[in-house]
Design brief:
305 residues, 8-stranded mixed β-sheet, 8 strands, globular, SDR_fam, oxidoreductase activity
Length: 305
């Protein structure tokens, strides 16, 4: 039987620079804490700088705070410029921040909030920082998805911004499916360079603030069952941390809890939905993301197969 992977398995991260988005609370905070406690210089990239500083003060290790609002392309570009000026190399970019089941809202650039924040914002940030990541041997881009990528999830190219009708659950499913498709397509494009890999992870059912917008019809049963189905943020962060640090990780893998229905447990390689592996949709989403963001990656185009 394979040994459970715990924080004791995290290798020494000394000398590595790691960016964790949305790290002032919940899964992001635990991810940043574990990386910093194992020697990494962690950049907490958050919308609220004061909350970020408070979080940094609770972490033992080298931690700095960077303002980043993933719902604003101007903020993303400013944050990327600041990070690039201060750090000639980036070892880990962990695309963790997200919103879930929000009422219909738009980002500063007019994108539906869940798709714009969870996918488009991270797509833009990764592209703007890639030249600091790509030259670093062993570097990784880890993007956090969700089991929600299976629920009412599809990439609605005819209405990516949910302007005709809106479903909180459907929009979240689209965004989390997009996170996986982005990872798989990014890995395909990175493979020829041989230095950087793209990996995905999900936290299972973790007790965090992310679910604060859950519709009332779902919130009540979840609250009642919480002791049975929810795990701590520290456990929920382990799939992301394993994806970021385990030497055995391969590009294009997806990590999640190993228990029943991937809800709880220690991290292992899991399988995403059949839809997430659709090659043509991955490429189409990539092109749409570049066009919407105005961010083009300095990577070779994927050859047709």
């Amino acid at each position: 039987m394979t040994e459970d992977w715990t924080e004791e398995h995290i290798p020494d991260q000394s000398g590595r620079v790691a960016i964790v988005t949305g790290a002032n609370t919940g899964l992001g905070f635990e991810t940043a804490r574990l990386l910093a406690e194992h020697g990494a210089h962690v950049i907490i990239a958050v919308r609220d700088v004061e909350k970020g500083r408070t979080a940094a003060g609770r972490i033992a290790g080298e931690v700095t705070v960077q303002r980043l609002d993933l719902a604003s392309l101007d903020s993303i570009r400013a944050a990327a410029s600041d990070i690039r000026a201060d750090h000639p190399r980036i070892d880990l970019l962990i695309n963790n921040a997200g919103v879930m089941y929000t009422p219909r809202q738009t980002t500063a650039d007019g994108f539906e909030l869940q798709f714009g924040t969870n996918h488009l914002g991270h797509f833009a940030l990764t592209g703007l920082l890639l030249d600091r990541i790509l030259p670093v041997p062993g570097s990784r881009v880890v993007t956090v998805s969700s089991t929600g990528h299976r629920i009412r999830a599809a990439i609605h190219f005819d209405d990516l911004q949910w302007e005709r009708s809106y479903s909180r659950v459907g929009a979240y499913g689209q965004a989390k499916l997009a996170n996986l498709m982005f990872t798989y397509e990014l890995q395909r494009r990175l493979a020829a360079h041989g230095t950087t890999i793209a990996v995905a992870a999900h936290p299972g059912t973790s007790n965090t603030e992310l679910a604060r917008n859950t519709p009332a019809a779902l919130r009540v049963p979840i609250t009642r069952l919480a002791p049975l189905i929810l795990q701590s943020p520290a456990m929920g962060a382990l799939p992301t941390v394993r994806a970021a640090t385990d030497p055995a990780v391969l590009g294009g893998q997806y990590y999640g809890p190993g228990g029943r229905a991937e809800a709880r447990g220690y991290p292992r390689v899991v399988t995403s939905s059949p839809a997430s592996y659709d090659f043509a949709t991955q490429q189409r989403l990539w092109r749409a993301s570049e066009e919407l963001n105005g961010v083009t990656y300095a990577l070779d185009r994927t050859p047709a197969r």
